[in-house]
Amino acid sequence: MKRLATLVLLAVIVLGAGAQTIGLEEPALEAAIREMNGIPQEQLAAYYADLALRYRFKAKDIERLALRYRLEAGEVCLVAFMARTRSMTMERVAKMKTPDQTWGEVATRLRLNQGSPEFGKLKEDAEGDLLRVRDRERLRLETQTQLQTQTQLQTQTQTQLKTQDGEGSGSGAGTGKGK
User: Which among 45, 46, 98, 126 counts the fewest CB atoms within 10 Å?
Assistant: First the structure.
């Protein structure tokens, strides 16, 4: 019984951590940021390069920030946005968030109005980022499928050639001696 209670408590803690709110007033932006948090690892470098271009930071700096502060992709987007909007370093913005605060509260501390045109643009940019990520993933899967198909066709062709070679040479064609 004690073991079951411990497992339930652990599940509540783990599931609760994943359900932590980002704290944005705009539900569509909150959903987009959450979805960005699920960007596949193999696509993060391209995503960080996109953010670097948009907010005029170095992609390496964005990647380092994400690793140092253990930020997910959507959080990195928020930090870059807030830093550029307030002419601050990303490091300074990242340091402002404490474990008991949401990113919405950090935006409020920075006097960023979540109903402002800037936040509206952030929402559009986030949705555009998600479309690009989905397109990259679709292209990656299509390329992977094409390569697998090509490999299978090559293997089949090689097998057929070996079979044909085997039929022509070892099937008892005359030895040249007659009666």
Answer: 98
